[in-house]
Amino acid sequence: MDLDLRKLRYFATVAEHRHFGRAAKQLYITQPVLSRQIRSLEQELGCTLFVRSTRSVELTAAGKQLYEEAQQILPSVTAAVGRVHDVGQGVQRLVVAFSPGLHVSDAIRAFASRHPDVETDVVPARWWEQDRPLRDGRAQVGYLRRPFDDAGLRIIPIGHEPRVACMPAAHPLACRQELTSADLDGERMLDIPKRRTSTLEEKFELIASGHGIALIPLSVARSYSRPDLAHLPVTDAPGIESCLAVAADRHEKLLRDFLEIATATLRQT
Predict the structure, then answer these.
(1) What is the pLDDT of residues 82-123, one digit of tens each?
(2) Residues with Cβ within 8 Å of residue 66, at least 6 apart in sequence
(3) What is the largest CA-CA distance in the chain?
(4) CA 213, CA 188: separation in Å to the nearest integer?
(5) N or C: which end of the chain has fewer CB within 10 A?
């Protein structure tokens, strides 16, 4: 059976929104058309992907598996089409993935000054799967924070940054100048395995709403400052390492040049 990529994109959009109406609006098609396409995909696969009710749309076990697969397949296909287009147009392109709060712009400017003929792009790396853009072909190099799955990757350490405790501004601890890990004993912590948020905005909204405290990198706190949140240093919390990452089997001169320039530039900043 050949998998229809258009139907797979439709499915992934519904899975993301958990709502046919919002998905149809994003896809610029009508809801009945979208429903027919999803039913057709379910018939082709021989399994139910969604449990529908008048109030909600939830993924079945098969739907959850397909959604995981789609999150790898669709970006890979998009990246492959882009690479083919670039080759056809004679364009050299370097794409850099970056973790939230890490700024790679200085390195890109330094690289562009020496390689003005190379197009450079950036792609955000989601904090729970930072290595994904390197593995699905969307990026050739990443400016990331540990920990992540570094199997098959070459890692160049850049530096360390401290963690801070992010909490509601009205929290009793928010008036302190600094904290230790012991100060957080008994506090409700937003634990990654238990409640994974899809965006930092969602994470901070949960914190501001009183759902818990989170330890976050200092650069993230500075990049996403908001008045209803407080960020306090945790003096005995281990620092977080930032690094450049590239597939171990990639040795193109363009990549070597970028890594050399980026390593020097980012370590300075």
Answers:
(1) 778 777 877 789 999 999 999 999 999 999 999 999 999 999
(2) 8, 11, 15, 45, 49
(3) 61
(4) 6
(5) N
Beta-carbon neighbour count of residue 162 at 10 Å?
Answer: 16
Cα 106 to Cα 155: distance, rounded to the nearest angstrom: 20
Query: Against a cut of 0.85, is the pTM above it?
Result: no
For 163-201, the pLDDT digits (tens) are 999 999 999 999 999 999 999 998 998 865 555 556 788
Answer for the pair 145, 151: CB distance below 8 angstroms, yes or no: no
156 forms bridges with which residues in the sheet? 244
